[in-house]
Amino acid sequence: MADHYDVLGVDKSASIDEIKKAYRRLARELHPDVNPAPEAQERFKMVTHAYDVLSDPGQRRDYDRGPQQGFSGGAGGFGGFGDIFETFFGGGAGGGRGPKSREEQGQDALLRVEVDLAEVIFGTHRDLEVDTAILCATCEGSCCQPGTNPVTCDICHGSGQIQRAVRSLLGNVMTSSPCGTCRGYGTVIPYPCVTCQGQGRVRARRTIPIDIPAGVDTGLRLQLLGQGEVGPAGGPSGDLYLEMKVRHNEVFSRNGDDLLCTLEVHMWDALLGTTAKLVALDGEIEIELKPGTQSSEVITVKSRGVTHLRGAGRGDLKVGVQVVTPTKLDTKQKELVKQLAASHKYPAPGLGHFQQGLFAKLRDKFTNV
Q1: Beta carbons of 22 and 57 less than 8 angstroms apart
Q2: Domains and CATH numbers, the chain
């Protein structure tokens, strides 16, 4: 694990102000709003974690001590009792847990994104506009007017805690509670930033470029690390979640990574066979119909479906055939059909086994093919 001081680029003797300056300098360089590179996001998290530890006097003191042996709060030690004594007796001579940091983790955000079925095949790119909290450009997260700094609270003297003597069955005991003047921060801001009202962040609309991968489906959520709201006082950003919705297509439907459609064929083309051209979502396809093609037959076109979300390759395009019988014939056409019927010996119409409807048979074949 990297040393927190090395991560921030400061000496072990660095003051709180030097640590804050180092963090702000690195945050301006590595923040996801400025540097979207994945390695920058990982380093920004390390920098933020290092600052969280070193900016807290209690955590910094424990970190500088290093791993402790014996009864120091490890497994089997008295760590749980230490919390109890801190609650009722103010943490002994140490004076409680110390001031809390103004910086907090930003909230996650959820955004719903709609895409067309055609965009799902190969993936697509979107520039999404989101209303979110970003780092205040005026104070850069310090919450103070430029040129000013927080000052030590004169009520708790920087501890963030107020100790009071309380009479109890055990006698007089000391209790600790957050300072009401500084709200437990140990410092107050006499001159808050006028741009962000002392919050260290402002609400604004920003554009996030997104590459939506191929193969997404309705209900799938994509996680974008560090693209959520910036936390109070310039704290680390939360994550942004994209919930996908694939719009309905009038011609094609989806079954997993396969695409399904129905091709209407005239009776004589089904009898004699033909080549049909189908305009698919990713271009034109030629389909060979053999002579005597029947309704509900399914023709599979390999690798013309949706690209697999995880892994290489694509699903198939499955085309169900629907033979269309003409409803109006002129006299000459009727005579030709009669001659054709007379030249074949078909059994007379009669009762037979129950047959499913066309669409039911297509559905079953789509599933089984």
Answers
A1: no
A2: 1-64 (1.10.287.110), 87-247 (2.60.260.20), 253-343+355-368 (2.60.260.20)
Calculate what percentage of the chain has a pLDDT beyond 90: 53
**Span 176-229, pLDDT tens digits:** 888 889 999 999 999 999 999 999 999 999 999 999 999 999 999 999 999 999
Residue-wise pLDDT for 284-324, tens only, equals 999 999 999 998 899 999 999 999 998 789 999 999 999 99
Q: Which residues contact 181 (CB under 8 A, 6 or more apart)?
A: 153, 154, 155, 156, 188
C-alpha 354/C-alpha 60 separation (Å) is: 80
Using alpha carbons only, give the angle 16, 182, 195 rounded to the nearest 5 degrees.
Answer: 80
Tell the burial category of 113 from Cβ atoms under 10 Å away from its Cβ (0-12, 13-18, 19+). middle
Structure letter (DSSP) for residue 315: -
What amino acid occupies position 332? K
Q: Which residues is 298 bridged to in the sheet?
A: 320
